[in-house]
Design goal:
The complex is a heterodimer of chains A (281) and B (281). Chain A is mostly helical and 281 residues long. Chain A is built from 14 helices and two strands; from the N terminus they run αββααααααααααααα. Helix content of chain A is 72%, strand content 1%. Chain A has a two-stranded antiparallel sheet. Chain A starts with a helix and ends with a helix. Chain B is mainly alpha-helical and 281 residues long. The chains are: A mainly alpha (281), B mainly alpha (281). The interface between A and B is large, with 106 and 109 residues.
Chain lengths: 281, 281
Amino acid sequence: MAAPALLFFTAFGVIPLLGVLVLSFTAWDGIGAIRPAGFDSWRAVFTDPGLPHSLWVTFLVMSLSWLVQTPLSILLGVFLAGAERYRALLSVLYFLPLLLSSAAIAITYKALLDPNFGLGAGLGLPFLSQDWLGRPNLALGVVIFVVSWQFIPFHSLIYQGAVRQIPTSMYEAAQIDGAGRIRQFFSITLPQLKNTIVTSSTLMVVGSLTFFDLIYILTAGGPGDATNVLALDMYKKGFQAGLMGPASGIAVILVLVGLAIALLLRRIGGGDDTASQLEGA
Amino acid sequence: MTTVTALRRRAGKLNWLGGLAGWFWLAIVIIPIYWIVITSLKSQSVYFVTNPFAPPTNPTLDAYRLVIESNFIRYFVNSVIVTIGAVVPAVAVSFMAAFAIVRGRGRFLKSVNSLFLMGLAIPLQATIIPVYLIIIRLHLYDTLLALILPSIAFAIPLSVLVLSNFVRDVPNELFESMRLDGCSEWQTLWRLALPLTRPALVTVTIYNALGIWNGFLLPLILTQSPDLRVLPLALWTFQGQYSINAPAVLASVVLTTLPILALYVVGRRQLLSGLTAGFSK
């Protein structure tokens, strides 16, 4: 009964995964014939001065968005796990950004941050009418803010579910021992959330490798190449410049980075124990 | 009992940090959404001269009319075809696979499961170049089927994971008694596992529908005819055409989100509880 799923996943998941490795040793413009090209594409990938920059931007987006999202999601998750009814209503509203497509979100923020017609101009606040997407550091900051806007709700829901599963008896015991609320958070809640943190971080980090549509529409990698993450670099090389070989090389790097980080996070989470945890992700 | 109430009171009094974050984030989430809705009801000339956060004094549906006249219905139908065409088979094959993995004992099924788990750690978008090649070779380029097939494959890993978690929760005695009654595996799947995992099926269905409805990369790469545009792609081209008409652009954002909002309103409870349970086990 697993056969149909296996078939689909092999055809459009496993084969492309191997295929991308094979294609990185070929030359192909996307239309004509595919020719073997040995290490030419890889040479092109590694001698491209844009690659270290794209890797750096990808790393920045990944780590900064993790740094912003994780503490806030945990805080919100703990808060939402409380029993009061209005908190349930809050989680319903929190979910709204998840209903919007990345395309819609990017388009909205582009209009909202327009220095001439957007938010700042309308309110007459010079601080808000900066050229948010036209200056390198600001644009990167906007990308991270928009990513957090989009995904914090999802992660706080995951944490909410996990916090609810922590037995209340643990808190009662801590209470009797005279532990304060902050102490309880650090010695009970946080350790109990360890596996959830690993799961959520894996989803965040692997997901951040694929922020293509959002960045493509919001900044197109710009200004200059300030927000040119690897996924965008791959698209531009392959589908705009017709260099599928080097683009496949970049894709291989993306896959390896994703796998390496997932394995690393599993190791941090406690080796074999988390293998089953990832199953319960 | 007294400890519990004391705990509650204590929690209520001291969790001001979570409360602050909770309300703060609510504002961050709601303000842009509020802005989208009110702006879409303004006329273009009004938009440039009024406070962006003031509700329109003369609400108008002009922006919506413009969007609908721009072939919106066509794109809407395309999105519906792709979403239903991908989600129904994806959930069906994932459910069968989850059932087989939980019920089966063999080595083979174990490795199938690990294969799907690996799919979670890999940014599947990185395989887009080979997927593009396969679609060309199958002569499916620029068809809706080209969007459906990879979408099914990409949805499988997470769906199998969440569904197998829920099938695993079905008590073994129930499976035993089905077997003693002489039911086949298919009958067990249909009459026992299906009804008992219905909430998880709803969760997975909505979650996948959300992802596919909002997908941008596959349509961008695998189709080109204007007639085959799905909504996120249409949004993007529409924004390119009418970039200075913010009310029209935002009306298109609202219109593309309405169907998914309706789905969310209907399945909200199950989606939220299913997601928190599925991810935080």
